[in-house]
From TrEMBL:
Coiled coil: none annotated. PANTHER family: ACTIN (PTHR11937). SMART domains: ACTIN, FBOX. This is Actin-related protein 8. PROSITE patterns: FBOX (PS50181). The gene is ARP8. Residues 1-47 form the F-box domain. It comes from Acorus calamus (Sweet flag).
Length: 438
């Protein structure tokens, strides 16, 4: 190697870093010594950190999701991985289309993009709701592909499925299966090469870099409390559905503003004020004694000033009766779910159920994680409540989309995660043959 042999190894490493990943990989074929140096995980971690995703997302994906859904895999530690190999695999992963069919509206875009590229009505409410499900799905997916200006046959797709049937009855299981199979059928009829359909709450959990925990999704109309163990929704334990969501909070703020004879043009104005000024009180009674006025200007309407309405709005999450609702408080629904985990003897797995992950736009309200922790700790003895942790949302209403982005960029995608058209047809044929023989 001539003069290169005299260079200190740390200086050579600096040169390799400056070369960049492609040329560094080529340098590894020069000699055994260089290959050993270039294969150093620290250098490739640096290359990955400069990529499209944050390092914690990359590390989580490659150590927990690389072999497919977590319930089926052996967990590996990052030190066992060759990040040079991981980098090469991730460069070959095709960009996938992400369609997050949320409860309020759908977010869609590319796995290689930083944020969703568009939004529309969710497939639950898309088109004529009296039409058959497959017709609505076909219209829904076709509309998204037209808006994204991409042919369905060109890319794999990740679809997040909202929780529509939350119990574990035979009817609910059949409904979930029917919805999933309808999604596969419609997309494969559109010649999509591979489909990955994952529960929305599971994807929100991945966005928080977890595979187990209780996900609280404050949706548009309802709030769901979903226990998930190693990537699997525990329907047999119980998914709690609470009958209020973001729309109810906006409606309650409107009612409070009307009591003070505050004039506004639309519900959008009220929603904006909720997002900009409202928060969750850690101690509601103490907050009533404070001066809490704050103002925000709405273009074309002027300046609005809220006082106690700022924290009274979110208080219905804990005391729904304030808004005339017959429902459990959010903390009570979570405690109910935790009790079911304890009763079903699955709570011994390193306290996974003590991790509560928030998702949904309303979960961005300041003070919500702290208030939830406080209320939950009061409801359980110290021996159980020790270790409770409420994780605030990093992505809010887009949590499931970002969870899908993590899956779509993992080095094993789509092989480890997707259903191909051929496999789906074989599965349907096997099921029909079994039923025919039975």
């Amino acid at each position: 190697m001539g003069a290169f042999e005299a260079l200190p190894s740390d200086l050579l490493m600096q040169i390799f870093r400056l070369l960049g990943p492609r040329d560094a990989a080529r340098a590894s074929s020069v000699c055994r010594t260089w290959r050993s140096m270039v294969s150093d995980n620290r250098m490739w971690i640096q290359f990955l950190q400069n990529g499209r995703e944050s390092w914690d997302s990359v590390a989580f994906a490659e150590t927990h999701l690389r072999s497919g859904p977590p319930s089926l895999m052996y967990y590996s530690h990052s030190s066992q991985l060759s990040f040079m190999h991981v980098y090469g695999q991730r460069e070959k992963v095709p960009g996938s289309v992400i369609i997050d069919g949320g409860s309020g509206y759908c977010k869609y875009g590319w796995s290689k993009y930083d944020i969703p590229s568009g939004r529309c009505a969710t497939f639950l409410e898309f088109g004529n709701i009296e039409s058959p499900l497959t017709s609505r799905l076909r219209h829904f997916f076709a509309t998204i592909y037209i808006r994204m200006q991409v042919k369905p046959s060109s890319q794999p797709v990740i679809v997040s499925i909202p929780i529509c049937h939350s119990d574990d009855t035979e009817s609910a299981r059949a409904s979930r299966k029917q919805l999933r199979e309808a999604i596969y059928t419609v997309l494969f009829d559109m010649n999509v090469p591979a489909v990955c359909a994952i529960n929305q709450a599971v994807l929100a959990l991945y966005a928080a870099r977890r595979t187990s925990g209780i996900v609280i999704n404050i949706g548009f109309n309802v709030t769901s409390v979903v226990p998930i163990l190693r990537g699997k929704v525990l329907y047999e334990v119980g998914v709690e559905i609470v009958g209020y969501g973001a729309l109810k909070l906006t409606g309650y703020l409107r009612e409070l503003m009307q009591r003070r004879n505050m004039n506004f043009e639309s519900l959008y104005t009220v929603r904006t004020l909720k997002e900009k000024l409202c928060y969750v009180a850690l101690d509601y009674e103490a907050e009533l004694l404070k001066k809490t006025q704050a103002s925000f200007e709405i273009a074309g309407e002027g300046i609005f000033t809220l006082a106690q309405e700022r924290f009274q709005t979110a208080e219905i999450l804990f005391r729904p009766q304030l808004a005339g609702l017959r429902a459990m408080g959010l903390h009570q629904a979570i405690a109910h779910c935790m009790d079911h985990c304890l009763d079903n003897e699955i709570a011994s797995d390193e306290g996974w159920w003590k991790t509560i992950v928030l998702s949904g736009g309303t979960s961005f309200l300041p003070g919500l994680p702290e208030r939830l922790e406080k209320e939950l700790i009061k409801m359980f003895p110290l021996s159980i409540s020790e270790g409770f942790k409420v994780i605030p949302p990093q992505y809010g209403a887009d949590s499931a989309w970002f969870g899908a982005k993590i899956v779509g960029n993992v080095s094993s995608f789509p092989e480890a995660w997707c259903m191909s058209k051929k496999k789906f047809r074989q599965k349907v044929h096997r099921n029909s043959s079994f039923l025919g023989a039975w």
